[in-house]
Amino acid sequence: MSALMAIKPDFDTTSPPPAAAEGTPLFELRGISKTFPGVKALDDVSFALWPGEVHMLLGENGAGKSSLMKVLCGAYQADAGEYFHKGEKVEIGSPADARKLGIAVIFQEFSLVPYLDVAQNIFLGREFPSRIPGLVDRRRLYREAQAVLDLIGLDIDPRTKVHTLGVAQQQMVEIGKALSQNARILVMDEPTAALSDRETERLFAVMRQLQEKGVAIVYISHRMAEVFALGDRITVLRDGKLVGRARPGQTTPDELVRMMVGRTVDMSYPRNFAQKPGEIALEVRGLSSKNGIRDIDLTVRAGEIVGLCGLVGSGRSEVARAIFGADEVTAGEISIFGKPRRGGPDAATMAGVGLIPESRKTEGLALIRTVADNLAVAGLPKLFPNKLFSPAQARRSAEELIKRLRIVTPSPNQSVALLSGGNQQKVVIGKWLAAGTRLFIFDEPTRGIDVGAKSEIFALIDQLVADGAAVLMISSEQAEIVHVCDRAYVMRGKRIVGELSRSELSEENIVRMGMHHD
Amino acid sequence: MTDQAVSSASPRLPAVPGVAVALAGLSLFFALASPGFLTAGNLSNVLVQSVILLLLALPMTLIIMTEGLDLSMGAVLTLASLVLALIVVATQSLALGLIGALAVGLAFGLVNGWLIAGLSIPPFVATLGTLGAAQGLALVVSDGQSVVGIPRFVRLVYSGETFGIPTPILIGAGFYALFHILLYHTRFGTYVCALGGNRDALTLAGVAWKRLLVAVYMLGGAMAGVAALLMTARINAGHPTAAIGLEFDAIAAVALGGTSFDKGNGWLFGTLLGVLTVGVLRNGLNLMAVPSSVQVACIGALVIAALLVDSLRSTRS
């Protein structure tokens, strides 16, 4: 609660921002609560929006930002709370109600239909009737869609099918869809996450135009630079509760992060770097694979965390896949604990290699199965040497791992899909522990995991190497590599371009080595 | 060569070469193998015989676009045909008979839609159940016997000509045009595509999609009712196994035509080509005196070949 006390007390829903007109807010939520089975997604949240302001909404994954947006646009019904539009009490019972009030939302998961074209997607549910009853006025549809595309500066044919567009273009279509509703209140969920710099600039320009027209914008972002550059006011959520309000000029990024996590983020938990590395766990010489990587040389010893960094697309994941036997090797040698590695992932697993993949939900877990099933799946030969599955044995093993890894789950029989990102990641690690893995390859181990759970994952990785395992860790977060790794290799253009020892390891060195020099 | 044709074609036409090549190849083969194939009379025959299949394949395209399936169509057609035959024989009224057939189709469509949209039962299971129900009812109402004595004015629907063109061809063309407008020029068609592509998008757009999904299956039932009229006229009777298994040909034609079983990726003209391909195959094999059971195997092989070509193409690109 100390973080709360630090916030200037003059921000409540009754004080409009200086830039906005005096008087009643454009829209106000009071005491909104929403409960899902087992989770209080929103707990007595109140906030107000004035015309022409950009209201930043901050919070970790699972803090309640998405739930709040869905309540606001009518996709969820709040269990308790009231809505006021220009001071008058209103009801939002459906998306149609929200739209009538001028609320439009740009979702992070796209609400686009892949095999409809851009124009049909922009006006989905709002098709223009033709003079012939029952038909759609297609000429008007494409004319109006073109006008929307011109507004957001997107240079594509409105007849293009959406599935042929790239992610950034789809995001822009999504933005166009919201703008075309003549929204008075526009809600954006990390709109720049998939955009290039040029597209981001374009989006900010459009936002400024909208602000001048008196549109209120709710903006969810994880980028502090955006929060301070664009925001008029900031609201921070944590565990479904409103934990603080602030203005950009009167707070700092550190203070906001402290509010979000509710405690000081400790990335540099004590790690004993002085440990003497043991036997060679992984040795790669002159490795090339079908996926394009060339002449890879690297070594990982037991008791070491070795980083593999470089820009996205530099070939890091391809190295991991080749070592794990998922991609065909065209040249070079890989040995695991002194023995040459042959065969596919099954052979790699038997040899003691475990891959914790980047896309946890599709490659790391069987989402519809239970925690216990997922914990057993890699270790079946070890857990059941006589080749007969025993539920009791699987459950015993699962309970042991749940305790050892401190996985938060009501029971081993819980569906793994219902766990938080951090606990899901622990299940992936646990399944390799059950398989007796001694060489762990982590691909983006903290992707999609809360700030608080991150250090817990790192503590776990640290424990693995303290117990004598070897770890190869791929990460796009240079700070993580610097804090955690004993050594790191830097990749560029599908090759390893350098190795940094613990003393040389810094974000500047990684970035300098990994950048392309033309 | 086909690869280039694909990549330069608009994204809506990914399977043109596949199904068009199959149609052209089969036509060429039968023209060479069977002297009777390439005559005006026989080609007209192919078209006429394809109409019943087309009437099922059109709504099947929409159903598959919603990531659904209707296995009950053949059995519902059979039941509707028997009901139509019984009513027409009893009342001598084509209109009453057609109303009866449509009522049967709509009722089964409503049940299918309710099971699938309302109770979230997978379409495969739901329509397998109603297939059994319709087939059983067909045996009950007919007592296992054919209904005979169909009046001439009913038979003329299939064997007659209008403006010098066989009536079934006009019916087929009319319904094709209707479905084209429905799919590409109405809200309903847009929503059908969205039902398979992204139901959340419909919810967020404020569209009550469950009702729409029920409507799609009712459309399928109604078309089975229309097809029942042509079937009754064609075989000059109501027969308790008249159209059993016809849903297989319909699904095959839709799949051949390049409609995908996920994400709402459908193509109506491809379905027309697929129907003609199945029609040509059946007609040609008939001319070559190949037994019906072998024909079914040939259609199955053709569908697998066509889907294989599509999957090879998509993995290469």
How would you describe what is shown here?
The complex is a heterodimer of chains A (518) and B (317). Chain A has 518 residues and is an alpha/beta fold. Chain A is built from 19 helices and 20 strands. A 6-stranded mixed β-sheet of chain A has the order 6-7-8-3-9-10, with helices on both faces. In chain A, helix 5 (138-152) packs across helix 6 (167-179), helix 15 crosses helix 16 and helix 16 packs parallel to helix 17 (451-466). The longest helix of chain A is centred in the middle third of the chain and has 16 residues, at 197-212. Chain B is an all-alpha fold and 317 residues long. In chain B, 76% of the residues lie in helices and 1% in strands. Chain B has 14 helices and 2 strands; from the N terminus they run αααααααββααααααα. In chain B, a hairpin with a 2-residue loop joins strand 1 and strand 2. In chain B, helix 7 (152-159) crosses helix 11 (209-235). The two termini of chain B are 14 Å apart. Chain A binds chain B through residues 73, 75, 94-96, 99, 105, 107, 109-116, 120-121, 124-127, 130, 134-136, 138, 160-161, 163-164, and chain B through 11-12, 181, 185-187, 190, 193-194, 196-198, 200-207, 263-266.
What's this, in brief?
Chain A has 518 residues and is α/β, with parallel strands linked by helices.
How large, in whole angstroms, is the Cα Rg of chain A?
Answer: 26 Å
Largest sheet of chain A: 6 strands, mixed
Helix residue percentage of chain A: 25-40%
Number of strands of chain B: 2
Tell me the strand order in the biggest sheet of chain B: 1-2
Morphology of chain A: globular
Classify the beta-strand content of chain B into a percent band: under 5%
- Roughly what is the average pLDDT of chain A, rounded to an integer? 82
Largest sheet of chain B: 2 strands, antiparallel
List keywords for this structure.
heterodimer; A: alpha/beta; 34% helix; B: 317 residues; mainly alpha; two-stranded antiparallel sheet; 1% strand
